[in-house]
Amino acid sequence: MGCPDRQAVEPGGQPQSSRAPQAANRKVECPLFPADHSKLSEYFAVSLPSNPSWNLCHALIIGDSYTDFRSFGDLKGYSKRILPEGSNPFLQVSAAHTTKIDEVYKIRNYLSHYSAASGRSLKRVYEDTYNMHNFLEPGQFVLAYNARRLWAYFDAFAGASNDMKAWY
């Protein structure tokens, strides 16, 4: 979850020294954290200041543990619990983009685990979406047909971003 007003980073991953001291304490007005913090407050059972800092919102939403969304639907569901309906850009992403992004999640899961379950899940995508009955390794799959699938995945992420930008 990025915000256009995040702290700048120099090549090599180091914060730009001229901006770093102010970044931790500044108040950031980011569209993902709307003026109406009621759902966020309710979900976490805390009271929030009228203009919470980026760090406070990040701490509440991300916390200090790994957050795992198994599909774009999971992300949308989580966003519904913490953002008011009129302030939720994730709800604007089209079903077509969501479907392609979910395929990428399944490919990523298979590549991360190489488990029987993740392989079956990916094979179901191959069968249901592409009418393929033989399993291909993800690299072969995305690069087949002049990498049309790979470009379709890139287009889905770009399209989802545009869907959300159009909403703003």
Features:
mainly alpha; disordered N terminus; 168 residues
Describe this protein's structure.
This protein has 168 residues and is mainly α. It is built from seven helices and no strands. The protein is elongated and about 55 Å long. The chain starts with 19 loop residues before the first helix and ends with a helix. 12% of the residues are buried. Residues 1-28 have low confidence and may be disordered.
What's the quick description here?
The chain is mainly α and 168 residues long. It has helices at residues 20-23, 38-44, 54-61, 72-82, 95-113, 116-130, 138-167. It contains 7 helices and no strands.
Outline the secondary-structure elements.
Elements: H1 20-23, H2 38-44, H3 54-61, H4 72-82, H5 95-113, H6 116-130, H7 138-167
Overall form: elongated
Summarize model confidence as the mean pLDDT. Answer: 81
The residue fraction in helices comes out at 55-70%
Secondary structure tally, helices:
7
- Count the beta strands: 0
The biggest beta sheet, please? none
Provide the succession of SSEs. Answer: HHHHHHH
C-alpha Rg (nearest Å): 19 Å
Beta strand %: under 5%
The residue ranges in which pLDDT falls below 50 over 5 or more consecutive positions are 1-28
- SS class: mainly alpha
Gap from first CA to last CA:
15 Å
Q: Domains counted in the coordinates: how many?
A: 2
